[in-house]
Amino acid sequence: DIGNYYYGQGHPMKPHRIRMTHNLLLNYGLYRKMEIYRPHKATAEEMTKYHSDEYIKFLRSIRPDNMSEYSKQMQRFNVGEDCPVFDGLFEFCQLSTGGSVAGAVKLNRQQTDMAVNWAGGLHHAKKSEASGFCYVNDIVLAILELLKYHQRVLYIDIDIHHGDGVEEAFYTTDRVMTVSFHKYGEYFPGTGDLRDIGAGKGKYYAVNFPMRDGIDDESYGQIFKPIISKVMEMYQPSAVVLQCGADSLSGDRLGCFNLTVKGEHCGRQYSQKRVSFFPRSPFRRSH
């Protein structure tokens, strides 16, 4: 159902790609190697475990036919351009969030060792602000669920854009370590400096690796593998969350890296831990 939503003409975010991904799984027989679940619609109460009540109330209320009544709130919550109002906006957020939270619940109950939400990975959304095509931060909500059973959770982000929303949510805690590999400089969202390392109890638990344009598989692996191996050794998380944005692949219209699918497979070696994958790739190759 999530493939039915439409951000608007010309918008890079295309939820219909999720349906395409599902069909590929069916046609190649990959579904036989996994259990497929329909996500529940996350409630407003679930969303406000991180997001502000006012913001979620706004997302529930705004529609294309009543936007004029919410002009001030749209500006306040950064909704309108990159994050447009479209038919079924809140239901889209419910399904995306519901899939990630449900995956975390299954991991907590030890009903699986790995969970994937094709419609997840909306890592730019803030507590009271939409950003970068993201409205509700399903990753943060899934990590909060994992923290009920896991003392330490590692978050790895290989999207070409810095995982700013997730980093911000856990910037002052040592229970979540965030590691982001991304393009830095005059590039959305403009955060993720090497010197951004966390604050308070979270100091040294935010790790950022800005990368140059054109990085290839070999160079990426030489950076990624030793860093993540050391992080795993020192931090010893009992759960790992991966955001696997495909905009770091060569040829992406908004990206500038030169990675292949082979170069993006890095996360597989960490599947001995309880892992949540949020690809965000089937429906968005942008920020």
TrEMBL record:
Task: Provide the reaction this enzyme catalyses.
Answer: N(6)-acetyl-L-lysyl-[protein] + H2O = L-lysyl-[protein] + acetate; N(6)-acetyl-L-lysyl-[histone] + H2O = L-lysyl-[histone] + acetate; N(6)-(2E)-butenoyl-L-lysyl-[protein] + H2O = (2E)-2-butenoate + L-lysyl-[protein]
Q: Does the keyword Lipid biosynthesis apply?
A: no
Molecular function as annotated in GO: histone deacetylase activity, hydrolytic mechanism; metal ion binding
**Pfam families registered for this protein in UniProt:** Hist_deacetyl
Q: What class of enzyme is it?
A: hydrolase
Q: What does the entry list as the binding residues for a divalent metal cation?
A: D159, H161, D247
Database matches in Gene3D superfamilies: Histone deacetylase domain
Q: Entry's InterPro entries?
A: HDAC_I/II, HDACs, His_deacetylse_dom, His_deacetylse_dom_sf, Ureohydrolase_dom_sf
Q: What is its EC number?
A: 3.5.1.98
**Does the record's keyword annotation contain Cell cycle?**
no
Using the record's annotation, list all stretches that form the Histone deacetylase domain: 11-263
Task: Offer a single GO CC term for the protein.
Answer: NuRD complex
UniProt keyword list: Chromatin regulator, Hydrolase, Metal-binding, Repressor
Superkingdom classification of source? Eukaryota
- Any single biological process term in GO: heterochromatin formation
- Catalytic residues, chain numbering: H124 (proton acceptor)
Q: Which family does it belong to?
A: Belongs to the histone deacetylase family. HD type 1 subfamily.
Protein name in UniProt = histone deacetylase
The organism encoding this protein is Chinchilla lanigera (Long-tailed chinchilla)
Q: Please name the gene that encodes this protein.
A: HDAC2
